[in-house]
Design goal:
This protein is mainly alpha-helical. Helix content is 47%, strand content 3%. Bound molecules: zinc ion. Zinc ion (ZN) binds next to loops.
């Protein structure tokens, strides 16, 4: 009887540990995918800005960048939060075109200062 309850306790601890490891892996993957989306949109926006000779602050609708045959075939969504907040204008260097609502998904300014 005592051995069985000990086995059950170990099973619970093992299941909990596996759950924690899975959650850690899953949230890390979603954050990485979110960062990739932000980077891809930023690159698409800078390419579009350069090809159309747009100055910083020029109004820029997301439909100019996303859609069939455009820079991005479809509008990216964060795997955790869904749609991003889009800048309505061409942002300055170091300012991102899209932002995620998730607090742990924000990119450090030191990483994006020249984007
Ligand atoms: Zn995100």
């Amino acid at each position: 009887m005592k051995v069985r309850s000990l086995q059950f306790a170990w099973l619970c601890v093992g299941t909990l540990a596996a759950g924690v490891v899975f959650l850690w892996w899953w949230t890390g993957n979603n954050r990485a995918a979110c960062h990739m989306n932000v980077r891809n949109v930023q690159q698409a926006m800078r390419s579009y800005q350069g090809m159309n000779n747009l100055a910083q602050g020029t109004p820029l609708d997301r439909s100019a960048l996303t859609g069939p045959g455009k820079m991005l075939e479809k509008e990216p969504v964060c795997p955790t939060c869904g749609p991003y907040r889009w800048s309505p204008v061409v942002p300055g260097i170091g300012t991102l075109m899209i932002e995620c609502e998730h607090t742990s998904h924000s990119l450090p300014p030191a990483q994006t200062y020249d984007w």
